[in-house]
Amino acid sequence: MVSFEARWVRWVTVAASVLLGIALWEFGTRGVSPAVISPFSATMNRLVEMIRTGELSAGVLGSLALFLTGFGLAVATALPLGLLLARVRVIRVALSDYIMLVNATPLVALIPFILSIAGLDFPELIEVARSFRSGEWAIWRDVMVPGTLPYAMTGVRQAIGRGLVGMIAAEFFLSASGMGQLIMTAGRNFDTAALFGTVLIISLLGAGLMALGRALEDRFSPWRALGR
User: Fold this and answer.
1) Residue 186 domain-assigned?
2) Cβ 56 vs Cβ 201: under 8 Å
3) Residues 28-41: pLDDT tens digits?
């Protein structure tokens, strides 16, 4: 377990680094043209204005709706398919090469697929279960799902960042909406305060979602959290 003192030191370090970054952003950009980069204070003032007009909330809600829809569909599709690949050898052999080819695409929970193909000692565990006369349903319930769930949560956590990148890319190239539209509009108008403010919100949103993914991962694989 991480001691209270170690946690305190970590939080102080994080806070100091954030304050240093804000100071560098504020004072290091004051002599630069606002069309290139805006200071931290100007960016915060512009964010407050965007919140007051409802522009930011509309963009965030639109992007979150897109992200959650795609993320939910991906999880609901990928996790059952990952279990199926781990259990049915014919499907695993037929699809393994294609899965490797699309590894660079932002598909959620792809890590469980790869781990299932590489092996999670499932054959041995299944043999042990069969030695106790476990049926097919019992194997799925007691071996397959518990064995893959921690790795699936890791895949979900790592896919959150990729999902956010895909969300913004979709808003750039497929549908001018959400925070992607805010960034494009700010860029066309040379409104660097709005641009950097929107990017900052996306970064904070990503950090929050990653923290949620980490919490889910720790919930289903608590031994990984012991050293943090």
Assistant:
1) yes
2) yes
3) 888 888 778 888 99
